[in-house]
Amino acid sequence: MATQTSEQSVIEGVKKQLFIGGEWRDAAEGGTLSVEDPSTGESLCEVADAQPEDALTALDAAVEAQADWARYPPRQRGEILRSAFEKITERTEELALLMTLEMGKPMADSKAEIAYGAEFFRWYSEQAVRIGGSYSTSPDGAQRVITMKQPVGPCLMITPWNFPLAMGTRKIGPAIAAGCTMVMKPAKQTPLSMLALAEILEESGLPPGVLNVVVGSSSSDVIAPIISDPRLRKLTFTGSTEVGRTLMEQASQNLLRVSMELGGNAPFLVFDDADVDNAIAGALVAKMRNIGEACTAANRFHVASSVSDQFAEKLAEQMGAMKIARGTEEGTQVGPLIDDDQRGKVVELVEDAVGKGAKTLVGGQKMEGQGYFYQPTVLNDVSKEADLRYEEIFGPVAPIFSFDSEDEAIAAANDTEFGLVSYVYTRDLNRALRVIERLQTGMVGLNQGTVSNAAAPFGGIKQSGFGREGGKEGIEEYLETKYVALNLPAEAPF
Ligand code: NAP
Asked: Can you give the pLDDT at residue 492?
């Protein structure tokens, strides 16, 4: 179990200022904001509270650094990422504790996020030296078509609180590999992991001004001078669909390149031929990783009616046995939700579903006492009218719906404005492919409850956004293609 002293020392060890132009500095008016531990509701520490003028200084630094950074040898950009990957991995324990303290998730989830987040630096350290171009002959043989890849330029990055490190490395990794400079604005509720990451990148040799970090209590005020500045070239956002829409509107004034990783409402489909125990194991991961506070969290379970009661009972048994405690405590599986508002939303969604006829098999209540804990909850026989079928729950609640045919299952899965990820459990390969081809999501987990992988293109369709993070696709978000036309009659090489 983490001791009080080690908790204090990791908090004390983080620089709590703004990181601008390679320097750690206080906010313009010297103000600070408090970072809270969601398992106690108490303040962990104060960090500098950026003002709009700080944001502009951060953009100035990114713009100033851009030209030299674009010329930096790709191998060296890759080596900075590789070095940072090694340092993050070496410091997993302290980074995990920091993350658990500010976000609440169990230590095991924090360690998993750190491994996942670091992997983007390793992957893009390898991609930095593989940025290509092309050379081809036009169809009439009279011209050469040459393409080259160049960095997009200064980027504004905005990340949410639920994965305080990995949502940053998924953007910073490819941006460094491509040669872009950055202003990063993490969520005010969990800025410490990002500040620790900035220090690691500084120690890894990232030149001043390439990454700038501003934390602010008023995110709209802080980003306003950046997003409206014509020197900015790109906005990349991870967060809710609602805020994504607002930011896209603002980004349209400057016609910024935009990537949007937004909300989800993932269906988890279990067909009658599925291995039910395997489906339960996957369901626990898809639902309970990160206390259900994940865009990829299974939001609704659609189960073939012949196995739905069996599935519901087994899931309830397992979710009911999970250890709920402060994330730092040994063996914790369920930590607190991020704040009282988020917990209040979960309370409302469960009350609404129960009011519309759902049966509570386990849980169904918030926990009294310190922190924002909510019981792991399984609801069976949930009505199609329940709000949680259409809204992101972002909590440890598993609603179960049954279906009688493949068509009904697919129609239910697609009956949402979101399109991030879906999960499919079946042992029939033809059925799997038939169903997957008809699912309206950017990603599908086939007989598994996670899809996240640095080597894979993560992203959604419909109101879950556009653009991909990870894989070979991820770096394209930070590259422009320049085409050169050249008149050159065809020559024979022999
Ligand atoms: P959020 O409220 O949209 O906030 C996300 C980020 O945007 C935070 O940094 C927030 O800053 C900032 N922000 C909020 N309003 C803003 C504004 N008017 N102007 C500029 N910035 C603004 O989302 P969240 O509650 O932090 O995160 C949960 C959401 O993220 C869920 O919907 C989840 O599905 C989604 N998500 C999606 C993915 C994906 O890859 N698709 C991954 C993770 C999470 P402050 O918090 O400091 O105000």
From this structure: 80
Q: Does the domain spanning 266-446 belong to CATH 3.40.140.10?
A: no
Give the distance (Å) from ligand 1 centre to CA of residue 262: 8
pLDDT (0 to 100) of residue 491:
77
Same fold, 4-262+464-481 and 266-446: no
The pLDDT tens digits for 387-414 are 999 999 999 999 999 999 999 999 999 9
Domain extents for the chain? Answer: 4-262+464-481, 266-446
Is 295 annotated in the active site? Answer: yes
Does residue 166 line the site of ligand 1, with CB under 6 A? Answer: no
Question: Which parts of the chain have pLDDT scores under 70?
Answer: 1-5
485 sits in which H/E element:
strand 479-487
Give tens-digit pLDDT for 441-474. 999 999 999 999 999 999 999 999 999 999 999 9
- Measured from the CB, is residue 158 less than 6 Å from ligand 1? yes
pLDDT of residue 4: 65
Which of 36, 169, 238 for mutating ligand 1's site (highest number of atoms within 8 Å of CB)? 238
Residue 249 annotated among the catalytic residues of the structure: no
- Phi–psi pair at 146, nearest 5 degrees: -115, 135
Q: What is 4-262+464-481's CATH topology?
A: Aldehyde Dehydrogenase; Chain A, domain 1 (3.40.605)
d(CA 21, CA 44): 27
Query: Radius of gyration over alpha carbons of the chain, in Å?
Result: 24
| CA 57 to each of CA 16, 27, 51, 185, 367: distance values in angstroms, whole numbers, following the listed order | 18, 11, 10, 14, 44
